[in-house]
Amino acid sequence: MTRMGDLLYKDEAYSNIGVCMKVHSSLGSGFLESVYGEALTREFEKRKIPFEREKKIDLFYDGNKMNKYFKACHPEERRISYNNCLSKFKVY
Question: Organism's domain of life (predicted)?
């Protein structure tokens, strides 16, 4: 398990996790993903963190691309570090 001190992009990770924690602490649990998605959008915009809402992320199984894909609220590729921090992190 990686500790926060060991992260390569610690500032970006703290920033993005902070957005998620703010949304979760404000709304709590039990809502549909669309509610959290809208709240995340507002919080990313408020903090001026560039992002794409519902970015399509391809899924692979046993080395083969699946027909299904995953959609996530995802920081834009302004800096590669934002993608590295959240490329496999479901933020809802």
Answer: Bacteria
What is the pTM for the complete model shown? 0.62
Give the structural domain span for 60. Answer: 7-86
Q: Does residue 92 sit within a domain?
A: no
Residues 6 or more apart in contact with residue 49 via CB below 8 angstroms: 15, 16, 19, 75, 82
| Tokens encoding 25 | 């602490």
Contact call for residues 46 and 32 (beta carbons, < 8 A): no
* Total structural domains within the chain: 1
Q: Tell me the per-residue pLDDT of 43-83, one tens digit each, with 9 for 90 and over.
A: 999 999 888 777 788 889 999 999 998 877 555 544 434 44
Within a domain: 1: no
Q: Cα separation of 92 and 31, whole Å?
A: 10
